[in-house]
Design brief:
single chain; Immunoglobulin-like; five-stranded mixed sheet
Protein backbone atom coordinates (compact mmCIF):
# COMPACT_ATOMS: atom_id res chain seq x y z
CA UNK A 1 0.00 0.00 0.00
CA UNK A 2 2.80 2.41 0.87
CA UNK A 3 4.51 1.63 -2.44
CA UNK A 4 1.26 2.27 -4.34
CA UNK A 5 0.77 5.56 -2.52
CA UNK A 6 4.32 6.64 -3.34
CA UNK A 7 3.81 5.84 -7.01
CA UNK A 8 0.53 7.71 -6.91
CA UNK A 9 2.26 10.80 -5.54
CA UNK A 10 4.90 10.61 -8.26
CA UNK A 11 2.27 10.33 -10.97
CA UNK A 12 0.31 13.26 -9.54
CA UNK A 13 3.46 15.39 -9.41
CA UNK A 14 4.26 14.57 -13.03
CA UNK A 15 0.74 15.39 -14.16
CA UNK A 16 0.79 18.67 -12.24
CA UNK A 17 4.04 19.67 -13.94
CA UNK A 18 2.56 18.95 -17.35
CA UNK A 19 -0.61 20.88 -16.62
CA UNK A 20 1.43 23.87 -15.49
CA UNK A 21 3.36 23.84 -18.76
CA UNK A 22 0.30 23.74 -20.99
CA UNK A 23 -1.40 26.49 -19.03
CA UNK A 24 -4.01 24.59 -17.07
CA UNK A 25 -2.99 25.86 -13.67
CA UNK A 26 -5.38 28.77 -13.66
CA UNK A 27 -8.89 28.57 -12.33
CA UNK A 28 -11.88 28.96 -14.57
CA UNK A 29 -13.33 32.45 -14.36
CA UNK A 30 -16.90 33.57 -14.71
CA UNK A 31 -15.90 35.82 -17.61
CA UNK A 32 -12.90 36.02 -19.89
CA UNK A 33 -11.65 37.61 -23.06
CA UNK A 34 -9.07 37.00 -25.75
CA UNK A 35 -7.43 39.07 -28.47
CA UNK A 36 -8.02 37.20 -31.69
CA UNK A 37 -6.44 39.60 -34.20
CA UNK A 38 -4.02 42.52 -34.08
CA UNK A 39 -3.29 44.76 -37.07
CA UNK A 40 -0.89 47.65 -36.56
CA UNK A 41 -0.09 50.14 -39.29
CA UNK A 42 2.72 52.63 -38.70
CA UNK A 43 4.04 55.34 -41.00
CA UNK A 44 7.32 57.24 -40.61
CA UNK A 45 7.08 60.98 -41.28
CA UNK A 46 9.93 63.18 -42.62
CA UNK A 47 10.34 64.73 -39.15
CA UNK A 48 11.02 61.31 -37.59
CA UNK A 49 7.63 61.05 -35.96
CA UNK A 50 5.47 57.98 -36.47
CA UNK A 51 1.73 57.75 -36.96
CA UNK A 52 0.32 54.53 -35.53
CA UNK A 53 -3.06 52.87 -35.96
CA UNK A 54 -3.71 49.76 -33.83
CA UNK A 55 -6.71 47.57 -34.56
CA UNK A 56 -7.47 44.87 -32.04
CA UNK A 57 -10.30 42.37 -32.15
CA UNK A 58 -11.44 41.25 -28.72
CA UNK A 59 -13.54 38.16 -28.10
CA UNK A 60 -15.55 38.75 -24.92
CA UNK A 61 -17.12 35.92 -22.93
CA UNK A 62 -19.31 37.61 -20.37
CA UNK A 63 -20.03 41.30 -19.91
CA UNK A 64 -17.28 43.89 -20.36
CA UNK A 65 -17.40 47.68 -20.25
CA UNK A 66 -13.84 48.96 -20.66
CA UNK A 67 -10.35 48.40 -22.04
CA UNK A 68 -7.23 50.14 -20.80
CA UNK A 69 -4.02 50.30 -22.84
CA UNK A 70 -0.69 51.60 -21.59
CA UNK A 71 1.42 53.56 -24.09
CA UNK A 72 5.04 53.67 -22.95
CA UNK A 73 7.01 56.80 -23.75
CA UNK A 74 10.43 55.12 -23.66
CA UNK A 75 12.51 55.96 -26.74
CA UNK A 76 10.23 58.78 -27.87
CA UNK A 77 9.68 62.48 -27.29
CA UNK A 78 6.04 62.04 -26.39
CA UNK A 79 2.73 60.76 -27.72
CA UNK A 80 0.03 63.02 -29.10
CA UNK A 81 -3.17 62.98 -31.16
CA UNK A 82 -4.68 60.01 -29.34
CA UNK A 83 -8.04 58.86 -30.69
CA UNK A 84 -10.28 55.81 -30.23
CA UNK A 85 -12.87 54.61 -32.73
CA UNK A 86 -14.94 51.57 -33.62
CA UNK A 87 -16.29 50.73 -37.07
CA UNK A 88 -15.60 54.27 -38.24
CA UNK A 89 -17.39 55.81 -35.26
CA UNK A 90 -15.03 57.99 -33.22
CA UNK A 91 -15.34 57.83 -29.46
CA UNK A 92 -15.59 61.13 -27.61
CA UNK A 93 -13.10 62.31 -25.01
CA UNK A 94 -15.12 62.18 -21.80
CA UNK A 95 -14.67 60.80 -18.27
CA UNK A 96 -17.46 58.21 -18.38
CA UNK A 97 -20.15 56.45 -20.37
CA UNK A 98 -20.17 54.03 -23.31
CA UNK A 99 -18.55 55.41 -26.46
CA UNK A 100 -16.09 57.58 -24.55
CA UNK A 101 -12.40 57.46 -23.76
CA UNK A 102 -10.09 59.17 -21.33
CA UNK A 103 -6.34 59.79 -21.16
CA UNK A 104 -4.19 59.67 -18.06
CA UNK A 105 -0.61 60.95 -18.10
CA UNK A 106 1.91 59.41 -15.71
CA UNK A 107 5.73 59.55 -15.71
CA UNK A 108 6.97 57.44 -18.61
CA UNK A 109 3.50 56.34 -19.71
CA UNK A 110 0.23 57.52 -21.20
CA UNK A 111 -2.79 55.45 -20.22
CA UNK A 112 -5.83 55.30 -22.51
CA UNK A 113 -9.15 53.87 -21.32
CA UNK A 114 -12.20 53.50 -23.53
CA UNK A 115 -15.67 52.43 -22.51
CA UNK A 116 -18.40 50.39 -24.18
CA UNK A 117 -20.92 47.66 -23.48
CA UNK A 118 -20.19 44.15 -24.75
CA UNK A 119 -21.56 40.74 -23.80
CA UNK A 120 -20.49 37.45 -25.37
CA UNK A 121 -19.40 38.99 -28.65
CA UNK A 122 -16.41 40.11 -30.71
CA UNK A 123 -15.56 43.82 -31.00
CA UNK A 124 -12.81 45.54 -32.98
CA UNK A 125 -11.41 48.81 -31.62
CA UNK A 126 -9.03 51.22 -33.30
CA UNK A 127 -6.51 53.24 -31.34
CA UNK A 128 -4.50 55.88 -33.22
CA UNK A 129 -1.75 58.21 -32.03
CA UNK A 130 1.43 60.00 -33.11
CA UNK A 131 4.82 59.19 -31.59
CA UNK A 132 7.12 62.23 -31.62
CA UNK A 133 10.82 61.52 -32.13
CA UNK A 134 10.29 57.83 -32.80
CA UNK A 135 13.20 57.73 -35.27
CA UNK A 136 16.73 58.39 -34.04
CA UNK A 137 18.92 60.08 -36.66
CA UNK A 138 22.47 58.83 -36.09
CA UNK A 139 25.41 60.26 -37.95
CA UNK A 140 25.41 57.42 -40.47
CA UNK A 141 21.86 55.98 -40.50
CA UNK A 142 18.37 56.53 -39.18
CA UNK A 143 16.94 53.94 -36.79
CA UNK A 144 13.49 52.98 -35.58
CA UNK A 145 13.65 50.69 -32.54
CA UNK A 146 10.13 50.12 -31.30
CA UNK A 147 7.99 47.74 -29.28
CA UNK A 148 4.81 47.56 -31.29
CA UNK A 149 3.25 45.26 -28.68
CA UNK A 150 4.56 45.33 -25.14
CA UNK A 151 4.79 42.58 -22.55
CA UNK A 152 2.11 44.07 -20.33
CA UNK A 153 -0.98 42.54 -21.91
CA UNK A 154 -2.71 40.17 -19.49
CA UNK A 155 -3.87 37.80 -22.25
CA UNK A 156 -2.20 36.41 -25.33
CA UNK A 157 -2.77 37.84 -28.80
CA UNK A 158 -3.25 35.90 -32.02
CA UNK A 159 -2.95 36.60 -35.76
CA UNK A 160 -0.62 39.58 -35.50
CA UNK A 161 0.54 41.69 -38.41
CA UNK A 162 2.53 44.93 -38.26
CA UNK A 163 3.16 47.12 -41.30
CA UNK A 164 5.71 49.93 -41.30
CA UNK A 165 5.59 52.45 -44.12
CA UNK A 166 8.81 54.35 -44.85
CA UNK A 167 9.13 57.64 -46.72
CA UNK A 168 10.11 57.21 -50.38
CA UNK A 169 13.64 57.75 -51.62
CA UNK A 170 15.63 54.64 -50.67
CA UNK A 171 16.67 51.46 -52.41
CA UNK A 172 15.62 48.09 -50.99
CA UNK A 173 19.22 47.11 -50.26
CA UNK A 174 19.55 50.21 -48.05
CA UNK A 175 16.87 48.95 -45.69
CA UNK A 176 17.73 46.60 -42.80
CA UNK A 177 15.04 45.17 -40.54
CA UNK A 178 14.89 42.81 -37.57
CA UNK A 179 12.20 41.42 -35.36
CA UNK A 180 12.44 40.57 -31.67
CA UNK A 181 10.05 38.34 -29.79
CA UNK A 182 8.86 34.74 -30.10
CA UNK A 183 10.96 32.78 -32.58
CA UNK A 184 7.88 31.86 -34.61
CA UNK A 185 7.66 35.42 -35.95
CA UNK A 186 8.95 36.63 -39.31
CA UNK A 187 10.12 39.99 -40.62
CA UNK A 188 10.07 40.87 -44.31
CA UNK A 189 11.26 43.84 -46.32
CA UNK A 190 8.50 43.90 -48.90
CA UNK A 191 9.74 47.00 -50.73
CA UNK A 192 11.88 50.08 -50.05
CA UNK A 193 8.78 51.63 -48.50
CA UNK A 194 7.23 48.69 -46.61
CA UNK A 195 8.44 46.36 -43.85
CA UNK A 196 6.16 43.79 -42.22
CA UNK A 197 6.27 41.65 -39.10
CA UNK A 198 3.94 38.70 -38.64
CA UNK A 199 3.41 36.45 -35.65
CA UNK A 200 0.80 33.70 -35.20
CA UNK A 201 0.59 34.08 -31.45
CA UNK A 202 2.10 36.31 -28.79
CA UNK A 203 1.76 34.90 -25.27
CA UNK A 204 1.00 37.25 -22.44
CA UNK A 205 4.18 38.57 -20.85
CA UNK A 206 6.08 38.64 -24.15
CA UNK A 207 6.60 41.45 -26.65
CA UNK A 208 6.87 42.07 -30.38
CA UNK A 209 9.59 44.54 -31.24
CA UNK A 210 10.79 45.84 -34.58
CA UNK A 211 14.07 47.47 -35.53
CA UNK A 212 14.65 49.16 -38.88
CA UNK A 213 17.71 50.96 -40.21
CA UNK A 214 17.40 53.17 -43.30
CA UNK A 215 19.11 56.19 -44.91
CA UNK A 216 19.03 59.45 -42.93
CA UNK A 217 17.88 61.32 -45.98
CA UNK A 218 14.40 59.85 -45.53
CA UNK A 219 13.91 61.90 -42.34
CA UNK A 220 15.53 65.26 -43.11
CA UNK A 221 13.57 67.05 -40.39
CA UNK A 222 14.28 64.53 -37.62
CA UNK A 223 14.23 65.97 -34.11
CA UNK A 224 15.77 63.02 -32.24
CA UNK A 225 19.47 63.42 -33.13
CA UNK A 226 22.48 61.28 -32.17
CA UNK A 227 25.84 62.48 -33.49
CA UNK A 228 27.44 59.01 -33.40
CA UNK A 229 27.89 56.29 -35.99
CA UNK A 230 25.57 53.43 -35.10
CA UNK A 231 25.30 50.97 -37.98
CA UNK A 232 28.32 48.87 -37.04
CA UNK A 233 27.23 48.42 -33.44
CA UNK A 234 23.65 47.73 -34.50
CA UNK A 235 24.80 45.00 -36.90
CA UNK A 236 27.04 43.44 -34.26
CA UNK A 237 24.28 43.48 -31.70
CA UNK A 238 21.73 41.99 -34.05
CA UNK A 239 24.21 39.38 -35.28
CA UNK A 240 24.76 38.20 -31.71
CA UNK A 241 21.03 38.05 -31.06
CA UNK A 242 20.46 36.26 -34.36
CA UNK A 243 23.11 33.68 -33.46
CA UNK A 244 21.40 33.02 -30.15
CA UNK A 245 18.02 32.90 -31.85
CA UNK A 246 19.23 30.43 -34.45
CA UNK A 247 20.74 28.33 -31.70
CA UNK A 248 17.39 28.41 -29.94
CA UNK A 249 15.69 27.39 -33.17
CA UNK A 250 18.09 24.48 -33.46
CA UNK A 251 17.29 23.48 -29.91
CA UNK A 252 13.59 23.90 -30.61
CA UNK A 253 13.86 21.72 -33.72
CA UNK A 254 15.75 19.13 -31.71
CA UNK A 255 13.04 19.26 -29.07
CA UNK A 256 10.36 18.80 -31.73
CA UNK A 257 12.12 15.87 -33.39
CA UNK A 258 13.23 14.33 -30.11
CA UNK A 259 9.82 14.67 -28.49
CA UNK A 260 8.14 13.18 -31.55
CA UNK A 261 10.53 10.23 -31.50
CA UNK A 262 9.99 9.80 -27.77
CA UNK A 263 6.23 9.79 -28.30
CA UNK A 264 6.55 7.19 -31.05
CA UNK A 265 8.93 5.10 -28.95
CA UNK A 266 6.61 5.35 -25.95
CA UNK A 267 3.64 4.11 -27.96
CA UNK A 268 5.75 1.27 -29.36
CA UNK A 269 7.08 0.37 -25.93
CA UNK A 270 3.60 0.39 -24.41
CA UNK A 271 2.34 -1.95 -27.14
CA UNK A 272 5.32 -4.31 -26.87
CA UNK A 273 5.12 -4.45 -23.07
CA UNK A 274 1.40 -5.08 -23.30
CA UNK A 275 2.02 -8.00 -25.65
CA UNK A 276 4.81 -9.41 -23.49
CA UNK A 277 3.42 -8.86 -20.01
CA UNK A 278 -0.18 -7.73 -20.33
CA UNK A 279 -1.87 -10.84 -21.70
CA UNK A 280 -2.99 -13.82 -19.69
CA UNK A 281 -1.24 -17.15 -19.91
CA UNK A 282 -2.88 -19.92 -21.91
CA UNK A 283 -5.23 -21.77 -19.52
CA UNK A 284 -4.91 -25.48 -18.89
CA UNK A 285 -8.71 -25.83 -19.11
CA UNK A 286 -10.36 -25.37 -22.50
CA UNK A 287 -13.83 -26.90 -22.03
CA UNK A 288 -17.03 -25.16 -23.10
CA UNK A 289 -18.96 -25.82 -19.88
CA UNK A 290 -18.02 -26.38 -16.27
CA UNK A 291 -20.98 -28.00 -14.52
CA UNK A 292 -19.93 -27.57 -10.88
CA UNK A 293 -18.38 -24.81 -8.84
CA UNK A 294 -14.82 -24.37 -10.13
CA UNK A 295 -13.40 -23.82 -6.63
CA UNK A 296 -14.28 -23.55 -2.96
CA UNK A 297 -12.91 -20.07 -2.31
CA UNK A 298 -15.35 -17.37 -1.28
CA UNK A 299 -17.60 -15.44 -3.69
CA UNK A 300 -15.67 -12.23 -2.99
CA UNK A 301 -12.42 -13.94 -3.96
CA UNK A 302 -14.06 -15.25 -7.11
CA UNK A 303 -15.19 -11.69 -7.85
CA UNK A 304 -11.64 -10.45 -7.32
CA UNK A 305 -10.47 -12.93 -9.96
CA UNK A 306 -13.39 -12.19 -12.30
CA UNK A 307 -12.98 -8.40 -12.14
CA UNK A 308 -9.18 -8.33 -12.07
CA UNK A 309 -8.91 -7.13 -8.48
CA UNK A 310 -11.79 -4.64 -8.59
CA UNK A 311 -13.84 -5.30 -5.47
CA UNK A 312 -17.13 -3.52 -4.87
CA UNK A 313 -20.87 -3.87 -4.35
CA UNK A 314 -21.14 -7.23 -6.12
CA UNK A 315 -18.64 -8.79 -3.76
CA UNK A 316 -20.28 -7.34 -0.63
CA UNK A 317 -23.70 -8.49 -1.85
CA UNK A 318 -22.50 -12.01 -2.61
CA UNK A 319 -20.72 -12.22 0.75
CA UNK A 320 -23.93 -11.36 2.60
CA UNK A 321 -25.86 -13.96 0.61
CA UNK A 322 -23.18 -16.56 1.24
CA UNK A 323 -23.21 -15.83 4.97
CA UNK A 324 -26.97 -16.39 4.88
CA UNK A 325 -26.53 -19.64 2.96
CA UNK A 326 -24.06 -20.86 5.57
CA UNK A 327 -26.37 -19.93 8.44
CA UNK A 328 -24.51 -16.96 9.92
CA UNK A 329 -27.49 -14.69 9.25
CA UNK A 330 -30.93 -14.83 7.76
CA UNK A 331 -32.72 -12.38 5.52
CA UNK A 332 -36.38 -11.66 6.12
CA UNK A 333 -38.75 -9.85 3.82
CA UNK A 334 -40.83 -7.07 5.31
CA UNK A 335 -43.21 -4.48 3.92
CA UNK A 336 -42.83 -0.74 4.43
CA UNK A 337 -44.49 0.50 7.63
CA UNK A 338 -45.28 -3.03 8.72
CA UNK A 339 -43.61 -5.64 10.85
CA UNK A 340 -41.67 -8.50 9.37
CA UNK A 341 -44.29 -11.13 10.18
CA UNK A 342 -47.03 -8.96 8.67
CA UNK A 343 -45.09 -8.72 5.44
CA UNK A 344 -44.40 -12.43 5.41
CA UNK A 345 -48.07 -13.15 6.05
CA UNK A 346 -48.95 -11.43 2.80
CA UNK A 347 -50.34 -8.11 4.09
CA UNK A 348 -51.05 -5.90 1.11
CA UNK A 349 -49.26 -2.59 0.72
CA UNK A 350 -49.43 0.26 -1.73
CA UNK A 351 -48.47 -0.89 -5.22
CA UNK A 352 -45.61 1.59 -5.46
CA UNK A 353 -44.13 0.51 -2.14
CA UNK A 354 -41.63 -2.31 -2.71
CA UNK A 355 -40.59 -4.80 -0.06
CA UNK A 356 -37.88 -4.06 2.43
CA UNK A 357 -35.54 -6.54 4.04
CA UNK A 358 -34.17 -7.23 7.51
CA UNK A 359 -30.93 -9.03 8.30
CA UNK A 360 -30.87 -11.14 11.49
CA UNK A 361 -27.73 -12.54 13.01
CA UNK A 362 -27.31 -16.25 13.71
CA UNK A 363 -24.41 -18.36 15.00
CA UNK A 364 -22.97 -15.57 17.15
CA UNK A 365 -19.57 -16.56 18.50
CA UNK A 366 -18.62 -18.78 15.56
CA UNK A 367 -16.74 -16.09 13.62
CA UNK A 368 -13.51 -18.10 13.83
CA UNK A 369 -14.84 -20.11 10.92
CA UNK A 370 -14.92 -17.02 8.72
CA UNK A 371 -12.28 -15.41 6.57
CA UNK A 372 -11.24 -11.85 7.55
CA UNK A 373 -13.29 -10.16 4.84
CA UNK A 374 -16.38 -12.19 5.77
CA UNK A 375 -16.00 -11.25 9.42
CA UNK A 376 -15.66 -7.60 8.36
CA UNK A 377 -19.08 -7.79 6.71
CA UNK A 378 -20.67 -9.26 9.84
CA UNK A 379 -19.02 -6.59 11.99
CA UNK A 380 -20.25 -3.87 9.64
CA UNK A 381 -23.80 -5.14 9.81
CA UNK A 382 -24.17 -6.15 13.45
CA UNK A 383 -21.63 -3.99 15.30
CA UNK A 384 -21.31 -0.71 13.42
CA UNK A 385 -24.53 -0.22 11.45
CA UNK A 386 -26.92 -1.92 13.91
CA UNK A 387 -25.04 -0.51 16.91
CA UNK A 388 -24.69 -3.95 18.46
CA UNK A 389 -28.19 -5.23 17.74
CA UNK A 390 -28.79 -8.64 16.17
CA UNK A 391 -31.07 -7.29 13.45
CA UNK A 392 -30.64 -4.58 10.83
CA UNK A 393 -32.98 -3.31 8.15
CA UNK A 394 -31.68 -2.10 4.81
CA UNK A 395 -33.17 1.32 5.55
CA UNK A 396 -31.19 1.52 8.79
CA UNK A 397 -28.06 0.46 6.92
CA UNK A 398 -28.49 3.26 4.38
CA UNK A 399 -29.19 5.80 7.11
CA UNK A 400 -26.09 4.78 9.03
CA UNK A 401 -23.91 5.04 5.91
CA UNK A 402 -25.31 8.49 5.20
CA UNK A 403 -24.67 9.65 8.77
CA UNK A 404 -21.20 8.09 9.08
CA UNK A 405 -19.59 8.06 5.61
CA UNK A 406 -16.08 7.91 7.06
CA UNK A 407 -16.73 4.57 8.72
CA UNK A 408 -18.38 3.33 5.53
CA UNK A 409 -15.32 4.35 3.54
CA UNK A 410 -13.01 2.67 6.05
CA UNK A 411 -15.02 -0.53 5.73
CA UNK A 412 -14.93 -0.46 1.94
CA UNK A 413 -11.18 0.19 1.90
CA UNK A 414 -10.53 -2.54 4.43
CA UNK A 415 -12.83 -5.00 2.69
CA UNK A 416 -11.12 -4.48 -0.65
CA UNK A 417 -7.69 -4.93 0.88
CA UNK A 418 -8.76 -8.01 2.82
CA UNK A 419 -10.17 -9.66 -0.30
CA UNK A 420 -7.18 -8.76 -2.45
CA UNK A 421 -4.66 -10.11 0.07
CA UNK A 422 -6.11 -13.55 0.69
CA UNK A 423 -3.90 -16.44 -0.34
CA UNK A 424 -6.22 -17.27 -3.22
CA UNK A 425 -6.46 -13.69 -4.49
CA UNK A 426 -2.70 -13.21 -4.40
CA UNK A 427 -2.26 -16.43 -6.35
CA UNK A 428 -4.68 -15.29 -9.06
CA UNK A 429 -2.33 -12.66 -10.46
CA UNK A 430 1.21 -12.64 -11.80
CA UNK A 431 3.25 -10.84 -9.16
CA UNK A 432 6.35 -10.98 -11.35
CA UNK A 433 5.21 -8.06 -13.51
CA UNK A 434 5.32 -5.59 -10.62
CA UNK A 435 8.92 -4.61 -11.39
CA UNK A 436 8.02 -4.16 -15.06
CA UNK A 437 5.07 -1.96 -14.06
CA UNK A 438 7.22 0.13 -11.74
CA UNK A 439 9.91 0.63 -14.38
CA UNK A 440 7.34 1.58 -17.01
CA UNK A 441 5.64 4.06 -14.71
CA UNK A 442 9.01 5.41 -13.56
CA UNK A 443 10.09 5.93 -17.17
CA UNK A 444 6.79 7.65 -17.85
CA UNK A 445 7.22 10.02 -14.91
CA UNK A 446 10.75 10.84 -16.09
CA UNK A 447 9.50 11.59 -19.61
CA UNK A 448 6.76 13.86 -18.30
CA UNK A 449 9.35 15.86 -16.38
CA UNK A 450 11.78 15.87 -19.32
CA UNK A 451 9.08 17.09 -21.68
CA UNK A 452 8.05 19.77 -19.21
CA UNK A 453 11.60 21.07 -18.81
CA UNK A 454 12.29 20.87 -22.56
CA UNK A 455 9.13 22.79 -23.46
CA UNK A 456 9.89 25.44 -20.85
CA UNK A 457 13.53 25.99 -21.74
CA UNK A 458 13.08 25.84 -25.52
CA UNK A 459 9.77 27.74 -25.44
CA UNK A 460 8.55 25.06 -27.81
CA UNK A 461 5.15 23.70 -26.79
CA UNK A 462 5.80 20.57 -28.85
CA UNK A 463 8.12 19.51 -26.07
CA UNK A 464 5.02 18.23 -24.33
CA UNK A 465 4.95 15.42 -26.89
CA UNK A 466 7.58 13.76 -24.72
CA UNK A 467 5.33 14.35 -21.75
CA UNK A 468 2.46 12.81 -23.68
CA UNK A 469 4.63 9.78 -24.31
CA UNK A 470 5.31 9.66 -20.60
CA UNK A 471 1.61 9.78 -19.82
CA UNK A 472 1.06 6.88 -22.21
CA UNK A 473 3.69 4.84 -20.37
CA UNK A 474 2.21 5.79 -17.00
CA UNK A 475 -1.27 4.77 -18.10
CA UNK A 476 -0.03 1.57 -19.73
CA UNK A 477 1.99 0.70 -16.65
CA UNK A 478 -0.88 1.40 -14.30
CA UNK A 479 -3.18 -0.80 -16.40
CA UNK A 480 -0.65 -3.58 -16.91
CA UNK A 481 -1.88 -6.74 -15.27
CA UNK A 482 -2.28 -10.39 -15.99
CA UNK A 483 -3.38 -13.47 -14.21
CA UNK A 484 -0.96 -16.15 -13.16
CA UNK A 485 -0.98 -19.50 -14.98
CA UNK A 486 -3.18 -20.87 -12.21
CA UNK A 487 -5.36 -17.74 -12.26
CA UNK A 488 -5.79 -17.99 -16.03
CA UNK A 489 -6.94 -21.59 -15.69
CA UNK A 490 -9.32 -20.65 -12.87
CA UNK A 491 -10.70 -17.79 -14.97
CA UNK A 492 -11.31 -20.18 -17.87
CA UNK A 493 -13.25 -22.48 -15.54
CA UNK A 494 -15.39 -19.61 -14.24
CA UNK A 495 -16.13 -18.48 -17.79
CA UNK A 496 -17.19 -22.01 -18.63
CA UNK A 497 -19.27 -22.15 -15.44
CA UNK A 498 -20.96 -18.87 -16.40
CA UNK A 499 -21.80 -20.31 -19.83
CA UNK A 500 -23.27 -23.30 -18.05
CA UNK A 501 -25.42 -21.02 -15.88
CA UNK A 502 -26.67 -19.21 -18.98
CA UNK A 503 -27.44 -22.34 -21.00
CA UNK A 504 -28.27 -25.10 -18.51
CA UNK A 505 -31.98 -25.06 -19.34
CA UNK A 506 -31.13 -26.34 -22.83
CA UNK A 507 -28.93 -29.17 -21.56
CA UNK A 508 -29.90 -32.73 -20.70
CA UNK A 509 -31.84 -32.67 -17.42
CA UNK A 510 -30.11 -35.87 -16.33
CA UNK A 511 -26.74 -34.10 -16.32
CA UNK A 512 -27.92 -31.23 -14.11
CA UNK A 513 -27.32 -31.04 -10.37
CA UNK A 514 -30.11 -31.34 -7.85
CA UNK A 515 -32.21 -28.30 -7.00
CA UNK A 516 -30.67 -28.05 -3.52
CA UNK A 517 -27.23 -27.32 -5.02
CA UNK A 518 -28.53 -24.27 -6.84
CA UNK A 519 -28.78 -22.15 -3.69
CA UNK A 520 -24.96 -22.34 -3.62
CA UNK A 521 -24.68 -21.67 -7.35
CA UNK A 522 -26.94 -18.63 -7.05
CA UNK A 523 -24.47 -16.87 -4.77
CA UNK A 524 -21.77 -17.11 -7.42
CA UNK A 525 -24.29 -16.18 -10.12
CA UNK A 526 -24.45 -12.78 -8.40
CA UNK A 527 -20.69 -12.41 -8.84
CA UNK A 528 -20.92 -13.47 -12.48
CA UNK A 529 -23.83 -11.10 -13.14
CA UNK A 530 -26.31 -13.76 -14.23
CA UNK A 531 -28.53 -14.24 -11.15
CA UNK A 532 -31.72 -13.21 -12.96
CA UNK A 533 -30.98 -15.51 -15.89
CA UNK A 534 -30.38 -18.42 -13.52
CA UNK A 535 -33.66 -17.89 -11.66
CA UNK A 536 -35.60 -17.60 -14.92
CA UNK A 537 -34.16 -20.90 -16.13
CA UNK A 538 -34.77 -22.58 -12.78
CA UNK A 539 -38.48 -21.86 -13.24
CA UNK A 540 -38.34 -23.83 -16.50
CA UNK A 541 -36.14 -26.73 -15.44
CA UNK A 542 -37.59 -27.03 -11.93
CA UNK A 543 -41.25 -25.95 -12.22
CA UNK A 544 -41.77 -26.58 -8.50
CA UNK A 545 -39.80 -23.40 -7.76
CA UNK A 546 -42.80 -21.38 -8.92
CA UNK A 547 -44.69 -22.62 -5.85
CA UNK A 548 -44.47 -20.89 -2.47
CA UNK A 549 -43.41 -24.14 -0.79
CA UNK A 550 -40.38 -25.98 -2.15
CA UNK A 551 -39.26 -28.87 0.08
CA UNK A 552 -35.47 -29.12 0.26
CA UNK A 553 -34.82 -25.73 -1.39
CA UNK A 554 -34.42 -23.00 1.24
CA UNK A 555 -31.82 -20.68 -0.25
CA UNK A 556 -29.98 -18.25 1.98
CA UNK A 557 -31.95 -19.13 5.16
CA UNK A 558 -34.46 -16.31 4.81
CA UNK A 559 -36.73 -18.72 2.95
CA UNK A 560 -37.34 -20.62 6.21
CA UNK A 561 -40.00 -18.13 7.23
CA UNK A 562 -41.29 -17.46 3.76
CA UNK A 563 -42.18 -21.02 2.87
CA UNK A 564 -44.11 -21.41 6.10
CA UNK A 565 -46.32 -18.44 5.27
CA UNK A 566 -49.20 -19.06 2.87
CA UNK A 567 -49.99 -16.54 0.17
CA UNK A 568 -46.43 -15.34 -0.42
CA UNK A 569 -44.80 -14.95 -3.81
CA UNK A 570 -42.98 -17.76 -5.57
CA UNK A 571 -39.46 -18.71 -4.56
CA UNK A 572 -38.06 -17.58 -7.91
CA UNK A 573 -39.64 -14.14 -7.61
CA UNK A 574 -38.42 -13.75 -4.06
CA UNK A 575 -34.87 -14.77 -4.97
CA UNK A 576 -34.79 -12.27 -7.83
CA UNK A 577 -36.31 -9.50 -5.71
CA UNK A 578 -33.91 -10.09 -2.85
CA UNK A 579 -30.85 -10.11 -5.08
CA UNK A 580 -31.87 -6.86 -6.78
CA UNK A 581 -32.77 -5.15 -3.52
CA UNK A 582 -29.63 -6.23 -1.71
CA UNK A 583 -27.34 -5.21 -4.57
CA UNK A 584 -29.11 -1.85 -4.93
CA UNK A 585 -28.90 -1.23 -1.20
CA UNK A 586 -25.22 -2.10 -0.99
CA UNK A 587 -24.42 0.04 -4.04
CA UNK A 588 -26.32 2.96 -2.49
CA UNK A 589 -24.52 2.49 0.80
CA UNK A 590 -21.13 2.40 -0.86
CA UNK A 591 -21.95 5.56 -2.77
CA UNK A 592 -22.10 7.44 0.52
CA UNK A 593 -18.34 6.88 0.94
CA UNK A 594 -16.30 10.03 0.08
CA UNK A 595 -13.94 9.91 -2.88
CA UNK A 596 -10.97 9.38 -1.75
CA UNK A 597 21.33 38.37 -38.33
CA UNK A 598 22.14 40.74 -41.29
CA UNK A 599 18.90 42.67 -41.24
CA UNK A 600 17.51 41.65 -44.62
CA UNK A 601 14.46 39.92 -43.21
CA UNK A 602 13.83 36.43 -41.84
CA UNK A 603 12.92 35.12 -38.45
CA UNK A 604 12.68 36.95 -35.16
CA UNK A 605 15.52 36.96 -32.65
CA UNK A 606 15.21 37.14 -28.92
CA UNK A 607 16.77 40.56 -28.50
CA UNK A 608 15.10 43.58 -27.08
CA UNK A 609 15.65 47.03 -25.72
CA UNK A 610 13.84 49.37 -28.04
CA UNK A 611 11.32 51.95 -27.01
CA UNK A 612 7.65 51.48 -27.58
CA UNK A 613 4.18 52.63 -26.90
CA UNK A 614 2.72 49.11 -26.81
CA UNK A 615 3.24 48.55 -23.13
CA UNK A 616 0.23 46.41 -22.39
CA UNK A 617 -3.42 46.40 -21.53
CA UNK A 618 -6.37 44.82 -19.79
CA UNK A 619 -10.14 44.71 -19.99
CA UNK A 620 -13.00 44.52 -17.57
Amino acid sequence: MRRSAAWGRMVCAALLSLFLVIGLSGVSLAKSYSITRVEITAAINPDGSMDVIERRTFRFSGSFTWVTQDLLLTGSQGITDIKVSENGHEYSLAPSGPGTYSIKETPGMTQVTWRFEATDESRTFELSYRVKGAVVAHRDVAELYWKFIGAGWEVSSSNIKVELKLPPGARKDEIRAWGHGPLSGTVKIVSPELVTWTLPRLPSGQFLEGRVVFPKRLVPQATNIDERDALSSILSEEEAWATRANRSRTVSLAVTVGSSLILLASITAAIVLKMLYGRDFEPAFIGEYYRELPADYSPAEAGCLWRFGNVGANEVTATILDLARRGFLEIEIATPNAGVLEGLAGTKTKPEAGPSYVLRRLKAGEESLLKPHEKMVLDLLFKSASRGQDSLSFDDLREWARDDPRSMNEFLTGFREAVRTTEASRSFFDQGIQKVKQREIGAGVALVLIGTVAATISQNPLGVLASLGGLILIAAGALMRRRSPWGSTEMAKWRAFRRFLLHFSSLDRATLPSLAVWEHYLVYAVILGVAKEVVNQLKIVYPEITQPRVPGFHPWMWMRLVVSSPGTASVGDLVTGLTDALYTSIQTVLNYAPSSGAGFGGGFSGGGGGGGAGGGGRAG
